[in-house]
Amino acid sequence: MIEARDLRKEYGGFPAVEGSTFSVESGEVFGIIGPNGAGKTTTLKMLAGLIEPTSGSVSVAGYDAGETEMRRRLGFLPEESPLYEEMTADTYLRFFADLYDVPEDVAARRIEETLSELDLQHRDRQIGDMSKGMKRKVAIARSLINDPDVLIYDEPASGLDPLTTNYIIEFTSQLAAEGKTIVFSAHNLFHVESICDRVAIMNGGEIVARGDLDQLQAEHGETVYHVHATVEVPDSVARNGQYVRTVESMDEVEATREAASEAGGEIVDIRTEESSLEEVFLNVADGHDSRSRSDRGADAESGSEA
Ligand SMILES: Nc1ncnc2c1ncn2[C@@H]1O[C@H](COP(=O)(O)OP(=O)(O)OP(=O)(O)O)[C@@H](O)[C@H]1O
């Protein structure tokens, strides 16, 4: 659905994005994450045809970036959306529906449905009098006014309270379930983890890691094992009547089992803990893929049973 080939953007000789190549399949949710200044917004704007790449190409649904038909198929949500403050949500959305040549009756129905799904209260207020969360909902409704197949959302829930954030993330997830292809950037990695099929991690203008969460975990994360013994074993901490030792390999699990057995006890539980996307991100962004997590000890334990 989206093909980005060797995308590069320079600002006065400074490379904001350096040769990104990736594709996003139809119906996929693709997350772009990275530290401030990594090149996420620049990438998203090139995908949406809003800025011209210095070199490389983008196509959406088979159309080149910037072509009229490509714009019809795409909805873009900028990081900060300038809204017309004196308008109500309804007038504002009708105005954009008109720009996209959406017939009036279709627009009226779409606006009503979208604002209801977004649970926008006080619709008759002027946009300038709305809260930040309400404004974001109006901006999201605007991105959907032409019923696009592809949505490009820059930080859709940034700076919003947890309730509104969850609502917007849920709503985005629902759009994906309805078949929209979504590319979005976010700093909250929990949200990315919860709704993305695949993720690209950018740093310094480059994609430095990519894949689904399992691939990223396997390539850039770690697995630790929290081994629960009935007796004290070396490097263990006492907890709830058991002794928990955190190790990084199955060999060490086995050694712990032997130590427990020699001390007249046994292993009663082994829990695995895999890196979260945040830990993978920190490893990749810091360039320290091999950083040990076991020194966080058993207190960090939160994994599933082995
Ligand atoms: N219009 C511009 N003129 C000059 N430099 C720019 C321009 N837009 C972006 N940059 C630079 O390009 C780099 C990438 O910026 P970009 O906004 O794409 O990063 P980002 O990953 O979206 O950051 P953030 O998470 O802070 O939003 C930064 O160093 C930024 O200063």
UniProtKB/TrEMBL annotation:
What the entry lists under InterPro entries is as follows: AAA+_ATPase, ABC_transporter-like_ATP-bd, ABC_transporter-like_CS, ABC_transporter_ATP-binding, P-loop_NTPase
Residue ranges occupied by any ABC transporter domain in the UniProt entry = 2-229
Which keywords are on file for this protein?
ATP-binding, Nucleotide-binding, Transport
Q: What residues form the membrane-spanning segments?
A: none
Region Disordered, annotated ranges: 283-306
Give the CDD domains listed for this entry: ABC_DR_subfamily_A
Entry's PANTHER family?
A: ABC TRANSPORTER ATP-BINDING PROTEIN, ABC TRANSPORTER ATP-BINDING PROTEIN NATA
Q: What is the designated name of this protein?
A: ABC transporter ATP-binding protein
Q: Which organism is it from?
A: Halapricum hydrolyticum
Lineage at the top is: Archaea, Methanobacteriati, Methanobacteriota, Stenosarchaea group, Halobacteria
